[in-house]
Design goal:
A hairpin with a 3-residue loop joins strand 19 and strand 20. It contains 19 helices and 29 strands. Helices cover 34% and strands 21% of the residues. Helix 8 crosses helix 9. The two termini are 22 Å apart. By secondary structure, it is an alpha/beta fold. The N terminus is likely disordered. It folds into four domains: 116 residues, no CATH class; 259 residues, Phosphoenolpyruvate-binding domains (TIM Barrel); 106 residues; 86 residues, PK beta-barrel domain-like (M1 Pyruvate Kinase, Domain 3, Beta Barrel). Strands 1-2-3-23-24-25-26-27 form an eight-stranded parallel barrel, surrounded by seven helices.
Length: 634
Amino acid sequence: MSSPSFPSPPSSDALLRDLNRGIVDADLRTLLTRVETLRHACATMEQEHTATFDLLDDDRRRSARNLVHYLALRSNDLRDLQHALAQLGLSSLGRNESHVLANLSAVASALASLDGMEPTRFEATEVSASHGRSLLASRAESLLGPAPEGRSVRIMVTLPSEAAYDEVLVESLLAAGMTVARINTAHDAPEDWESMAGLVRNVAGRLGMHCRVLIDLAGPKLRTGAIEPGPEVMRLRPRRDVLGRVTTPARAVLLPTGVAHASSDTTPAIPVPTDFLKDACVGDIVELYDARERRRRLLIAERRADGSCIATCDRTVYLASGARLELMHRRQSVARGRAGRLPALPQTILARPGDRLLLSRHPGVGRPAGRTSPAIITTTLPEAFEHAKPGETVWFDDGKVGAVIRAVGADSIDLEVTNALAEGSRIAADKGVNLPDTDVRVAGLTADDITILPVVARCADMVGMSFVQSSADVSDLRSRLAELGGERIGTVLKIETRRAFENLPSLLLAALQGPCAGVMIARGDLAVECGFERLAEVQEEILWLCEAAHVPVIWATQVLESLAKTGRVSRAEVTDAAMSERAECVMLNKGPYIADAVRFLDGVLRRMSAHQDKKRPMLRALNVARRFVDPVGK
């Protein structure tokens, strides 16, 4: 069979005529004018921020200018211009984050050449495409350490408590691919944090590996307060098969006063008077009426050396504090007494759409709704509501319950539930509260954070600042670290609120004043604050702005969470992990299978690095294409 023949390629003159023959609606000179107008807008915006640039060294001044240029560019709707340039085979301006002016200059020169004009002569731009990439790469290495061979993205792991002493665990994480260890100061104690940092460095040094240490400050956590305890009642319930037959009786420990319940024993304990079990024998019966006034019988199944007894029951019992007990031996009463104080049941607040909630503006204890009174919720940070206004939204427990402020009083804020399950959603104590619409004027550093800073200065390579909102927060942290001799420590700004996202340009300019800085996309709170439907859009914008400032990004929250916690990965998690390759670092949270999750992520990132570099697809040869082109040779 003869080979197919193809027409000869057109001459360059013919190609130029085709390009100019109505391929785009606007003529080339109009496009050129628009591009030059964009360059002028960048220059104007730069002039307006010269005072900010004067605070930076030459290297960071280039990044700050490029960020300002990018903001000037993206303040315009460029979609029609993108379409026209793409039809001409020119840059569509869609990958210019790291080198805005260089990209605009190249496009303007190409347009002038296509129109037969002499290319416009521009002054040399400060950041070329290669320079922009190298600036970001060097900043990422300064903050996060060198990337491992074959993988451009670092892996950060939140250390569990065991990492303070378990050398085998730390070694397994490092061998799997961990290059940054995160210490969460919301858990454990200062001595544990120091042990974790020391053990990570010792093991990494022994293995000849690099691993940076991030210490994460808790920040001003806004959470629901305590809820008044429920009734003191214990439920004992046997296990039954599908036919309702008892397979395992309910068990409880009858514990005389003065006998300690072993902390490792998970069997529920019922306190009884000291002498109640003095003459108890295996086979005796404890008779009682439970909280529902139902007669129940507990069988003494075992008598222990310490005087306690194991009792079993084949019917469900709701035992309340103070319940009358009678010990029966061969149907004869041998002892009487009352059950002691049982642990109070934790309570939650049930919220249905349309329900009214009162949010207390003072510390205290909340309570569920009564027959005629609404539920009351307290918070750990009442001052966060100082500037709350009617019409603003409040979200509880990672967005599970949403409400709108109807009225603001001196002592409480009146809420109406707008988002909850039809049958009701429960709000428990110590759950997160988000105020996406409210002007929350709370300092980024709490008193607890400030007491932790000496440990940070001694042990950390970088510090994570939670709930940062303004450039003043960044300056406060840096000045306090400098006083402690921690000038070298990098700063990671955790973008968790809508206000932080909206202030990101000024936060980046402030961060560039430090030795090295990065941004963490904390997608948990950010999703609640900005709306779950906007999360993908918001994280893209954060990636773009940080690349424009040449600031490295950490992709965080629920990455491979199912794998880390259960050992099984979901399909959606794999896609999320693959997309995280566009950041400079990916954070995994702790879990029983965390080493497996690190290994899995390492493999995903290594494969994706051959296909993707930030927003730019890498045209690596595809095996599927090779097999099509040469089916015999493969």
